[in-house]
Structures are given as C-alpha cells and as structure tokens.
C-alpha cells in the first residue's frame, strides 16, 4: 500500500457536524483510551498527524483522514478511562452511536484495539457485542505486545483466540508500535478491502 496524500478533512464533535462524502469507504479505529489508536494511525500514515498522549482521553472527536483522495482512516475517541465523568461517558456513547448510525454502511473494516497485556474488559465486550448486532465487520488488534515476555505473548494471543470464539470468527493481529510487528498485516488487510 502506498500512501501519497493525507489530509485531515473532517473533525466531528457532535451530532450537528456533517460527515464527509463516502468516497470508496473508510477504515475506523476504536478501543479504550490510551490503547494506541492514534499511534497506530501515525504509523500507518507514516506521519505524526494524530495527537498521541501518555494521558488517556487525548482524542475527543472523530477525525477523518483522507488518504490518497480515495478513502478514509477514522480515529475514534477512546472509552473507559477511570477518570471519565458520567457525562463524558454519555458523550462518548452518543458520538459513537451517531457515527455507527451514519456511517455503518461505509465501514470496510473496523479495527478494535485491545491492550494485549490485559484480559478482556467489560466495555470491550460490550463494544464487540454491539458491533456484532450492528453487523459491522471488525478485527482485533492486540496492542503493546512489546511489553510482554515471549511466553506471556503466546498466552495473550491464545486467550483472545478463545474468548473471541464466543462471538464468531475474527482475525486477531498481535501488534506493537515499538517493534512494528503486525503493521504489515494491518496494511495487507486494508489492501484486501480495496484501500490502496
Ligand atoms: N510500548 C508501547 N506503547 C504504545 C504502543 N502503542 C501506543 N503506545 C503508547 O501508549 C500511549 C497512548 O497512545 P495513543 O495512541 O495516544 O492512544 P489512543 O488510543 O489514541 O488514546 P485516546 O486518544 O486517549 O483514546 C502513548 O504514550 C503511546 O506512545 C505499543 O504498541 N507499545
Ligand atoms: Mg487518540
């Protein structure tokens, strides 16, 4: 995949903002706050465009990056950080609900990022069930694999293979922004869905 051109074309803060034209589809990235969505996007785009932070809750809006004037990468706000107030959680739910409702049909594949060091969290499970009921195609990216020892790594992948079986057949990609493992696989997957 060759990315020649990237533009941040749209930022959505609430339901009064309008979405960009569908073009040839979009690839969205969702997951808990701090799991590494913006970092992964920057690696895929080969440019530091998405803001990254050690503190959770950095991305508060939905950001549409137009790639090669053809399709979009969509950086979604993270959920589930401890300090989020109830109103912030409600805001997240509303903004994501509106996104799914408005763009479901345009999503080629959605990448659900999960921190490979931890067991499946309640809100990740809720999200996966939600995606399933909406019939949104998704795969799972296990992030921060560099922080695991070799033996723990195998355990983590196996654990997620087993647990996801409950929901159906899903691709699981172990990934690390440090070692870049999994990046090629993610790009290949995007390519198979028609992204260039
Ligand atoms: N070791 C390691 N650190 C990572 C990896 N991916 C992301 N990080 C770090 O995790 C922190 C959070 O990354 P972000 O990309 O901002 O996370 P996010 O999911 O966009 O977070 P929100 O915008 O708050 O939803 C940063 O300090 C990153 O450098 C990884 O694979 N390995
Ligand atoms: Mg972010």
Plain-language structure description:
This protein has about 200 residues and is of the alpha/beta class. The chain has one domain (about 5-190): Rossmann fold, CATH 3.40.50. Helices cover about 35% and strands about 20% of the residues. It has helices spanning about 35-45, 85-105, 120-135, 150-165, 185-190; strands at about 5-10, 25-30, 60-65, 70-75, 105-115, 140-145, 170-175. It has a seven-stranded mixed β-sheet with strand order 1-3-4-2-5-6-7, sandwiched between helices. β3 and β4 form a beta hairpin. The model has no long low-confidence stretch (mean pLDDT about 90). The structure holds guanosine-5'-triphosphate and magnesium ion. Magnesium ion binds near residues 37 and 58. Necessary for normal cell division and for the maintenance of normal septation. This is Probable GTP-binding protein EngB. Keywords: Cell cycle, Cell division, GTP-binding, Magnesium, Metal-binding, Nucleotide-binding, Septation. Belongs to the TRAFAC class TrmE-Era-EngA-EngB-Septin-like GTPase superfamily. EngB GTPase family.
According to CATH, the fold-level topology is Rossmann fold
Number of structurally distinct domains: 1
CATH class descriptor name? Alpha Beta
Which percent range describes the beta-strand content? 15-25%
Task: Tally the beta strands.
Answer: 7
Side by side, the strands of the main sheet go 1-3-4-2-5-6-7
Coarse shape: globular
CATH H level: which superfamily? P-loop containing nucleotide triphosphate hydrolases
**Helicity level:** 25-40%
Number of helices: 5
Judged by helices, strands and strand pairing, the structural class is alpha/beta
Radius of gyration: 16 Å
List the secondary-structure elements in sequence, H or E.
EEHEEHEHEHEH
Mean pLDDT: 92
Bound molecules: guanosine-5'-triphosphate, magnesium ion
């Amino acid at each position: 995949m060759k990315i020649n051109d990237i533009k941040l074309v749209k930022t959505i803060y609430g339901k009064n903002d309008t979405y960009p034209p569908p073009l040839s589809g979009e690839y969205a990235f969702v997951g808990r706050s701090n799991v590494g969505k913006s970092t992964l996007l920057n690696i895929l785009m080969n440019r530091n465009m998405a803001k990254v932070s050690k503190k959770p809750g950095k991305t508060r809006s939905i950001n549409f990056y137009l790639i090669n004037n053809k399709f979009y990468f969509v950086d979604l706000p993270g959920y589930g950080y401890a300090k989020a107030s109830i109103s912030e959680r409600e805001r997240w739910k509303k903004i994501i609900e509106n996104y799914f409702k408005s763009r479901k049909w345009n999503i080629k594949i959605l990448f659900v990022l999960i921190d490979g060091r931890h067991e499946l969290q309640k809100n990740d499970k809720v999200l996966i069930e939600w995606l399933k009921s909406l019939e949104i195609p998704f795969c799972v990216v296990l992030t921060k694999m560099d922080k695991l020892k070799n033996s723990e790594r195998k355990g983590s992948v196996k654990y997620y293979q087993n647990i996801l079986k409950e929901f159906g057949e899903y691709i699981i990609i172990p990934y690390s922004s440090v070692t870049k493992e999994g990046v090629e696989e993610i790009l290949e997957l995007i390519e198979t869905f028609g992204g260039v």
